[in-house]
Write a structure and sequence with these properties.
Blueprint lengths: L1 H21 L4 H9 L6 H15 L5 H10 L2 H26 L1 H7 L3 H9 L2 H9 L5 H11 L3 H26 L15 H20 L1
Helix pairs in contact: 2-4, 3-5, 4-5, 4-10, 5-9, 5-10, 8-10, 8-11
C-alpha cells in the first residue's frame, strides 16, 4: 500500500508540473471575470482558499497570482498570495507526509534519506521558493516526505513567497490592463530573484562541502 500512495504523490506532482509548464489554465479568461467582484472583500478570502486547495493537491496556482496582482495593489496582492501559498504549502506538506508515512519508515535510517533531509534547512527552502518558475508542488511534497522541520519550512515559505510575489505583483499590476494581457513574465525582468536563489544555493553547497 505504501508504494501505491507514493505513486499517487508522484502522479500528483507530475500533473502539477505539467499544468504549470503547459499554461492550460489561462489567466486572460479569469481576470475579466474577477474584476466584476474586485470590490467585494470576500474575493480576497476566496483567492486564498482556492490557492490553498490547488497547492494541497499539487495543482498549479500561478493563475491566482495573476488574478490577485491584476486586481489589487502589490502589497495587498503579496499578502493574499503569501497567505494562500503558505497555507497551501502546509496542507500539501501534511498530505504528502501522511501518504508517504509507511514508505518513509522504511528508508528514514538510510544515508541518502538523512543527507537529503539534512539539506532541507531554512535557506534551501527559501532559495527554491525564490527561484522563478520552480514548481511549488515539488517543494511542498518533497518537504513532507523528507519531514523538513516546520520551524524551517513555514518561515522559509512565507519569506520566499512574499519576496517573489511582491516582485511579480508590481510587474503585473503596472503592466496589466483589461485590453493587454500576456501569458507570462519575461525571465529577464525577474533575474534578481534567480541570482539571489542561486547565490543562496551556492553558499549552502560551499558550507556543506567545507563541513
Amino acid at each position: 500500500m505504501s508504494h501505491y500512495k507514493l505513486a499517487l504523490l508522484i502522479l500528483l506532482v507530475s500533473l502539477g508540473v505539467a499544468l504549470q509548464l503547459s499554461g492550460y489554465i489561462d489567466p486572460v479568461t479569469l481576470i475579466p471575470v474577477a474584476r466584476q467582484y474586485a470590490e467585494h472583500g470576500w474575493l480576497a478570502v476566496l483567492l486564498i482558499v482556492i490557492q490553498t486547495l490547488l497547492f494541497t493537491f499539487a495543482a498549479v496556482g500561478s493563475s491566482v497570482v495573476w488574478v490577485s496582482a491584476a486586481l489589487y495593489p502589490p502589497l495587498i496582492s503579496t499578502l493574499i498570495i503569501t497567505a494562500g501559498t503558505t497555507l497551501g504549502g502546509i496542507s500539501a506538506y501534511l498530505f504528502s507526509a501522511h501518504l508517504s508515512r509507511e514508505w518513509t519508515h522504511k528508508v528514514e535510517h538510510s544515508g541518502i534519506y538523512r543527507l537529503l533531509r539534512k539539506q532541507g534547512n531554512f535557506f534551501t527552502v527559501l532559495a527554491l521558493r525564490l527561484m522563478p518558475g520552480f514548481p511549488h508542488s515539488v517543494i511542498n511534497y518533497s518537504s513532507g516526505i523528507l519531514k523538513i522541520r516546520f520551524i524551517n519550512f513555514i518561515p522559509a515559505t512565507a519569506t520566499g513567497t512574499a519576496i517573489k510575489t511582491y516582485v511579480y505583483s508590481q510587474l503585473i499590476y503596472n503592466a496589466t490592463t483589461p485590453g493587454s494581457l500576456t501569458r507570462s513574465i519575461d525571465l529577464t525582468t525577474v533575474w534578481p530573484l534567480l541570482v539571489l536563489s542561486l547565490l543562496i544555493l551556492a553558499a549552502m553547497f560551499v558550507k556543506g562541502f567545507l563541513e
